[in-house]
Protein 1
Amino acid sequence: MRARGELFSDIAQVVNGAASALGGVREELRGMRQGYQERSQNAGSVVTREDFDAAISRIEALAARITVLEAQLAKAGKTDTKKTATKKAAAKKAAKSAKTSR
């Protein structure tokens, strides 16, 4: 009976070793698959979700900044338009005076 117990013990050790080896193979295959996916994405110009989200947030921040700058520009443009109109009127008067004084 002792030999039979040793036989089952040996078989159990072999099975455990095989299971361990299969686990290692599975991890190796997973790593190879991930590497293949990354290479495929890079070759196809596909971005990751994290990069996409970062780009979207940057675009939204820039859009908000553009809106603020456009508002400032419009405000400055209204002020400059009044000044420019006044300068143009003064220039016209000066030109008329110069023509009539000749």
Note: The chain has a mean pLDDT of 83.
Protein 2
Amino acid sequence: MSDFTVRTAEQLPALLKGFRKQAGLTQAAAALRLGITQQTLSAMERNAGKVGVDRLLHLLSILGVELVLRQAGESPAPSASSAIW
């Protein structure tokens, strides 16, 4: 998967939905693994900017996505297997 640079919260919903679908998970299946309802996960995907960091990191882990932070302007690490947020 490609790296993604996220600069605004408005970019997160589409990415979370895309990562979930790529992982082959329905909202119900992902919600069950996260310990929440499908409706709550749907709200998280729509309003990702308001999700707590702990819950967001847990969801990313379930989706097989890692969060990588780097200084603006730096080149990404050589590994192409991680997503840049």
Note: The longest strand covers residues 67-68.
Protein 3
Amino acid sequence: MAVKKTGEKYRCSVCGNEVEVTKVGGGTLVCCGKEMIKTEG
């Protein structure tokens, strides 16, 4: 899923890492070799 706006939150389904977008740069967030899942925003 592509990052679209600041404030979005993503979680890794493998290790549980969580990130919040502070600057949109395009592309997708990847952790542990898998695309991260959007949880909020």
Note: The longest strand covers residues 37-40.
Protein 4
Amino acid sequence: MHLEIFLSLSIAFTIVYFIIPRIIKVSLAKKLFDVPNNRSAAKKVVPTLGGIAVLAGFFISLIVASDSYNVNELKYMLVAIFVMFIVGLKDDIIGLSAKKKFVVQLAVALYLVLLGNYRITDLHGIFGINEIGIATGNLLSLLLIVGVINALNLIDGIDGLASGICMLISVVYGVWFLYAGDIIYALVCFSLAGSLLAFFLYNVFGTTNKIFMGDTGSLILGTIVALLTIRFNEFNPVSGLAVHGAPAIAFAIISVPVIDTIRVFAIRLSQKKSPFAPDMNHIHHHLLRLTNSHLVSSLILIAANGLLILLAFVLFESLGNNLLFVLLLILGFTLAGIPSFLVKYQGKGIEKAERPKSIFAFFLFHKK
């Protein structure tokens, strides 16, 4: 079992690591790259088709590593991922309206819930609710799938953030599935983690070989993470590993993209704008103004997500589902508001990132 996990990681990493330079070469030759605008964190031309490599590494690794298992239950997931890949690819190459993308996302979510049986049936006592009806479960499942897809798409704004967060999510879910006896979904997680690790290296540390994942990557990541979250909530482990805290723990695992999305939607609605209107109010935008570093900003958010996950697993037995969920919610939104507060306090502009003026902020955010 551990050999198969190692295979899934190593095969995915190797494929992505060697495919990306070829994708970059073709992208530059065919002018398939991202042209920076006033909302772009990047300021130079960069190819945006990294999602192709991530998908190739994920699919091939999963097929090879799971050869001795019956993976028939994954067919709905794989079809949905491929459909979202096509949508993202079209958007990256020729563009696609937000409305059309949303319609496809909703259609894919309906397919997964109604045919793939990816649905929430139990809230495990959160706010006193356990088993829920089919209609309510279907509605919650649709909301979760579409919401997480868009959340991962929205946080893909600076180098290393979407891939780093999803690496963390996939490793946490993967370890849990592995020791809970769900080897198939453990292989899904580690195949994804291996692909993202190779992509992360090019995305963050690449110079002449830098690449973005584009919507091609972020849409498939959102789909996978959403389905892993539903699986985590619904799976009954053979090992006896507790799952009754699933809703609160799952919220902690996907907390950064979910909190950021709720936060920016609330800001836009308060300003009487469409919740889908693009702006520079994401947490990562504020951190970037403070740190002037994509890597540092991403690592801060990944560490914050990791802290919430750690608290969820450590405190669940003593606090219980309800109190833990409320605590995570309060702590998550409090942490999310700190970068915005510091930006306003220091009077930083929207377009130009200045160095922190206070000694405290200097040691926290100074880029050497």
Note: The CA atoms of residues 39 and 279 lie 7 Å apart.
